[in-house]
């Protein structure tokens, strides 16, 4: 039975989805005003790990990850760069998706962008106003009244009675020790440049917190299974999501809240001023591979801080080589006989089922590697055991993604590309389009360039 630590109840609970065999998952995505750093990707990799475990346990996962393309930070960046907001956010959205693909993160089913869902946010705010949970201010902004929700603070154990005399906060982010009424709708100001929408309260834009509530509910319904993010999202973002969603809908919102801990760099907080601020491109320039980065970030439990050090690359490289070498040895004696899995797979699964205990699962796997190598050295491993071992390695990799994937282009894809090129030369454009779609259905994208077609994995 899968068990997760639920941040809302602050204890481990058996995982029971609303619909048997299916999981509705929402994860807070990037705010696309800059390149995502490895602290962000620590959380995104945890969510990828969770998703892979759910799939491995037989669940059908419907995953939504939002794109925050309008908020205080994105508008500030557009103003600083003197560029349209969409130009900034489109660039960093594409960069995020490229980086995610590089890290072998399984894509979400939908990446809803906040700017494409503003009407749903307006509708939700209107519900809150109608029910007495929100109020309009003189400038045309709308604020949520945290005193109107008796359970406000349940996620982070804050005391609403601490509310200061200045009871409202416009900023998207603020401190845990100062809970205040928060902005659902922000009235237009000149500093917002040309970013605004018309609403019943006048021109303005949505606050950050209402964005995730409206989009998660649109795609997953009023009551869904799992909501994830980093611990930095707990307050005020997730606390506010819970309040406004329950008050608008009058129903429970999310069953399980899972949060990944912070990433440290060389024992300290990551920051640009300290010169220890890493994006993926920085790590690739340092010589790390995708698989080494995945190992370093997934080797710790998601609820413990990860201390990222470049010198861990040596350990990661050795670990990956051990897996590859054993896989090669097992292949040399394996037969095509039908095989299951080694007994250790059960202990491996039990570790994963216990709140995604990655260090324990890895320990089981690498202890099995050690024992298997001893048996191989003594020539005691039979073909059936070798086949079971290969199954275990494949299963392990389906969850951890530590084995480099070969991107050699299959011959059938090369043949389709050649056929398409001939169709293009002959002006058979319908056939060309049909072949492009066929190539795409096989997981490859073809791009026509002056020097000929270029292929890349989707």
What is CATH's topology name of the largest domain? Rossmann fold
Question: What is the level 1 CATH name of the largest domain?
Answer: Alpha Beta
Contiguous low-pLDDT stretches (5 residues minimum) are: none
> Approximately how much beta-strand content do the residues carry?
15-25%
Category by helix and strand content? alpha/beta
Q: Secondary-structure element sequence?
A: EEEHEHHHEEEEEHEHEEEHHEHHHHHHEE
Work out the number of β strands: 16
Our Rg estimate from Cα atoms comes to: 25 Å
Instruction: Name the CATH homologous superfamily of the largest domain.
Output: HUPs
Helix content: 40-55%
- Please give the largest β-sheet: 5 strands, mixed
* Tally of structural domains: 3
Q: What is the number of helical segments per DSSP (H or I, 4+ residues)?
A: 14
Mean pLDDT metric: 93
Distance between the termini: 34 Å
How would you describe the shape?
globular
CATH architecture of the largest domain: 3-Layer(aba) Sandwich
Main location: cytoplasm
Cofactor: Zn(2+)
GO cellular component, one term: cytosol
Pfam families: DALR_2 (PF09190), tRNA-synt_1e (PF01406)
